[in-house]
Write a structure and sequence with these properties.
Blueprint (H helix, E strand, L loop, with lengths): L1 E6 L4 H11 L5 E4 L1 H19 L4 E8 L3 H10 L4 E5 L4 H14 L2 E5 L5 H10 L4 E5 L9 H15 L4 E5 L7 H6 L4 E4 L1 H4 L4 H13 L1
Parallel strand pairs: 1-2, 1-8, 2-3, 3-4, 4-5, 5-6, 6-7, 7-8
Helix pairs in contact: 3-4, 5-6
Length: 211
């Protein structure tokens, strides 16, 4: 399982310092939505990818329209992965997928607020995507386990070997559940970034996810 560390609601220098602390353990660093909105693609994604060229970055742009334009700009800024919302039209997701293919990059479909029928439709239509099971942050982690079990089953019923990520309050204690449900990418935010020692916490997650 891969560790993705999500960095958000800080300025760019603070994001750089956090990356320096976790880069030895984070397979992917997520540049959060608010960070991108506050500073723009070039000053966030562009600056971070230039500063840390060996690190894979996901830009959480949460596209829901103008898919081709937003994905092109995000990949041009240096992101390895860009995100589109699952409740977007299939035409929008298809446009994102086509740009991802053209750039040879990954794309993630965020399943936030998607019902079972939509999950199955997306999984069948976009088999190359990474599908993110996402509990809203406002839920403060409550119900994450049940959501992961339910949606992972829905994805596997619709796609042969879906690539699945999980986010929304992931803790060290969540790792066995993620492994049992076949999660490829565990996305961790405040459990690492707000820890007293982010590097030590990232190392603990990395170790647990590799066991």
């Amino acid at each position: 399982m891969k560790l993705q560390v999500a960095i958000d609601r800080v300025d760019v220098p603070a994001a750089m310092e956090m990356i320096r602390q976790v880069e030895a353990y984070a397979d992917i660093v997520e540049i959060g939505t608010s960070l991108i909105k506050d500073f723009g693609l070039e000053n966030s994604v562009g600056a971070l990818t230039r500063t840390f060229p060996a690190q894979d970055f996901l830009a959480d742009i949460k596209t829901c329209d103008e898919g081709a334009y937003e994905f092109r700009k995000t990949y041009e800024a240096g992101a390895a992965v860009a995100t589109v919302m699952g409740f977007s039209s299939s035409a929008t997701i298809r446009a994102c997928a086509e740009v991802a293919d053209a750039f040879g990059r990954d794309y993630l479909i965020d399943l936030l607020a998607c019902d079972a029928a939509r999950v199955r439709q997306i999984a069948a239509e976009f088999p190359r995507a990474i599908f993110c099971i996402h509990l809203p942050s406002d839920c403060v982690g409550e119900g994450l386990g049940a959501l992961i079990e339910e949606m992972a089953g829905q994805l596997r019923a619709a796609a042969k070997t879906p690539r699945i990520a999980a986010a929304g309050g992931v803790q060290l204690a969540s790792v066995p559940l993620l492994r049992r449900c076949g999660i490829e990418i565990g996305i961790v935010g405040s459990a690492v970034t707000k820890a007293a020692d982010p590097a030590a916490e990232a190392r603990a997650f990395h170790k647990a996810m590799r066991e």
